[in-house]
Amino acid sequence: MSSPEEQAFRLLTEYANGFMVSQVLFAACELGVFDLLAEAPEPLGAVAVAARLGTSSHGTELLLDTCVSLKLLQAETRRGKALYQNTELSSTYLVRASPKYQGNMLRYLSRTTYLCWGHLAQAVRDGKNQYPEVFGVPSDELFTAIYRSEGERLQFMRALEDVWSVSGRHVLAAFDLSPFPLICDVGGCSGALAKECTSLYPGCQVTVFDIPEVVQTAKKHFSFLEDPRISFREGDFFKDPLPEADLYILARVLHDWTDTRCSQLLARVHRACKPGGGVLVIESLLDADGRGPRTTQLYSLNMLVQTEGRERTPAQYRALLAPAGFQDVQCRRTGGIYDAILARR
Q: Which residues form the O-methyltransferase dimerisation domain (predicted)?
């Protein structure tokens, strides 16, 4: 049995090596390991995987065995030879053909978020996101930096589509939204959350409101326009008139911004909202003391390195909603990554 000192050192080592775990996941996805094994009629050995991927046998074997230890793959030994296949976890989330595929989000994390996190210490020093340092682009206009190219904008939109394919329906069911027939998804991006909304509440109509570049990309690359209950409208939610609605959804929006900017946006939403209407805020909620859950704390640090905002506690969201004029603020923890707050005009 190891001593308390050895246990503490093991924990420290696990924390220090955490970046290696994410890189294993990113590399296996980038190389196409999970898609290859999903398409194979039977489990494959490392040599066969390497041959089909065009990778080294040695490196492939190391990667596959590490994926086994992470429960991303499972292996069985036949005649002294290890054969690999996907686990339920990887089959559900890491195979492109799966409706819950998360590869686009992982690609965004790998190519953008991971690079920003390399400058976390500097972000803590100056309290600003790290787009100028990492990508050489000014960040005075936040989403000009986030959407710094058409390819990056499309990658981000596909990443959010992945998120809502898993979390959207669950968080939209936290409250009964059927009394709100006309809904506006503010900053609704590709329309992925709107799709989940019309699926869960067939009687509703959803207007996705986002900047022109996002709406144009959505129309070009996503199929949600085929649903007559979903429409798109171009505009800047800080400046332009908001579409008329019974309910305004702010999903992963407020965490991008400072309290001042959030207050400005919520005041605009309150003015546009019909009497008896409301706002649904979808975010990952911190515990009351701000010291958990760990995933949400990490998301809050991510807001530091990538945006102007932070994750918040239920009390902090109430403190933003009440001055904007909203009443009857209800918070629901869903048990998932994202939680829901419903407030009435």
A: 14-95
